[in-house]
Hints:
Low-confidence stretches: 634-652, 683-769
Strand order of the largest sheet: 8-15-14-11
Organism: Merluccius polli (Benguela hake)
Mean pLDDT: 81
GO biological process, one term: anatomical structure morphogenesis
Distance between the termini: 206 Å
Strand content: 35-45%
Radius of gyration: 81 Å
Membrane topology: Single-pass type I membrane protein
Protein name: Protocadherin alpha-C2
Subcellular location: Cell membrane
Number of strands: 56
Amino acid sequence: MEEGSVVANLASDLGLDLKTLSERNMRLDVIANRKYLNVNKETGDLYIVERIDREYLCALKTYTSCFLKIEAILENPQRIFFIEVEVMDINDNTPHFRRDANELDISEATQAGERFSVNNAVDPDVGVNSVKTYHLSTSEHFDIEIQTGRDGSKFADLILKKSLDREKQAVHNLILTAVDGGTPSRTGTASITVRVLDTNDNAPQFDNEHYRIKIIENSPIGSLVLHLNATDLDDGSNAELAYMYSLYTSEMTQNTFNLNPHTGEITVKGVLNYEDFKLYDMEVIATDKGSPALSGQCKVTVSVEDMNDNHPEISIKSFQSPVKENIDVDTVIAVVSVSDKDSGDNGVVDISIPENMPFKLRESSDNYFELVVSEPLDREKVPEYDITFTVIDRGSPPLSDNETMTLELLDVNDNVPKFPQSFYTIRVMENNAPGALLDSLTAYDPDLHENQYLVYFIIEREIANTSMSMLFSINPENGKLNALKSFDYEIEKEFLFHIEARDSGVPPLSSNVTVHIIIVDQNDNTPVIVSPWRAHGSVVEEKIPRSTDKGCLVSKVIAIDGDSVLNSRITYQFLQVTDTTLFSLDQYNGEIRTMRMFSYRDPRLQRLVIVAKDNGEPALSATVTIKLSTVETAVKAYSDMTEVPLEYDIFSDLNLYLVIGLGSVSFLLLITILVTIVLKCQKPKSSKAAPPCRNSVISERNSTIADSTLVSNDAYWYSLFLAETRKGKLVVRQPAPKGSRYIVSSLPRSTGLTETSDSAPSTLQIHYG
């Protein structure tokens, strides 16, 4: 009740007079209690001065009633009244448990119906306000049963109504609620934690019953293959597992793979080779440490995957070597087989040979190939072939191998001997020593052995009833060509014949070459002076008028040489001369001319020694001595040209008569001299006149010599004449077209010699009887 609330009226209850009540000074005395109540001295009302808590006030009392004992004291007269005030309980306290949390350990093997005590709830209130009942939170495994104590208190027992399974639920959390009987009722709660104690009732289990693992061969030792994970729903030691191989796992598998007993890891222990073993089966057991121990098992199949770790192999089953170079195309040379221990594309093998060879591969059956000839072979070009067979698989990366075999070719006689040249020109110096080596005509035959052994022959040919084998010889073994005689350029200038080279094959093959022997001239002929003619060793005597003018032809020396053009080129010079100022000598045509007119002081006799020297090395020469005697009267002149009158600074009638007379005489002598010169010297008439000179003889230089050296036209004609007549032919000097020198005709020998002279070009005919 609230403070100040009136509990009772003591004056009324005690029968006191209210009028005198104030005078009697009523007071209260509390016995053994706090002073919760007081009295109004005027009215006698008993009221509350302090809030009353029955549970506090009567906490030590075991009975349900609670009283406040007080004494009411009155004065005038003094009286004492003993008063008991019962404190009535109200439901102002909530039930509570002595422990808010209760923990229970219950084995999962406990049978249903088992009871477990829990703490009961207390409520300070009494009577109907105390704890009347309990409630348990919903649970399929637990329930409560309410019990009443001797003192009327209520408590609850926890009852297991369904067996526990720790693997399904290891902990059960329950709420126990205590409810009092007050209105409204009050409740108090406590938690109950039930821990289910494990028993080894669960065997280990693997994630899968059968594991299928693929691993690449040649995996490093220690590589992880599989991490096995077995689980045991039990707890503690009942869930501690150990892994091991079962008895059904082969020893080879156990030696190849290692199983960690604690972690269940399977790692590579030995070498994995797909080609040796492709599939491994093992059975693994996981055992817990419970009592009794339980176990579980699984199968593991390890499939080794192939990797390209084996090189392809090649095997030569048959091989034919050596073979003839003329072997037919498409002939089988070798049979080879290929293989690869790998599988799939790693085991597919391709084979090849170099492309630049006259062979090809032809597949005969699975993994068997034939090497056949695809093109004609030629030992002379390639005597042997190193054939490399290359095999390569289709793995990634591809692996390859190769093997080389040498194919030798046997020679057949299929090559004709060949000379380095098709035409040989050999120059031989005349006067050579008999047996002299001229040249070595060596042919080449690319064949082998007897097919390349050559024999040399001179193909017989007769020249002027003379066989070539009488003039030349050739060594049949080495082709050295020798001269059997000494040759003379002036007689034989060249030879043309053939030499044959023949091999020793079957059948033999041969070829020939043309040999042109050219006899090279030596300067072995001394020049011969043919003009002016003289007896052997005699001196030529000539007469010349003292009136001969300057530049007039006195004489002409002509020498011939039987050697070739170079060696026969003649030059002339004075060896001795009486007066060097009087005569000049042309070194090329041998003309001797006056350099000035004669004077009365000049000797009547002039001696000239002329040497004719050829162009050889060493040079050969001949000399002629000419004695000139001067006369006062006119003599036969050599020239056929008209006379040109001389001009004098002083002209008189006497001189005019002398000139006319001298010209007439000279003209008459001209015809005589011309005929005399032709008959005596057999020289053709010059086609070009010399400068005008009285009593002079004209000659011209020949400009048609091959080396452009000025040589006497008459000397050339004479040399040609001698050369042709040696051959038994008639030489005719005929008129030449304009711009030419001579036309020479060779005729058979006939009758005598005639010469015609006219104003037209002359013709000289020479006849042999």
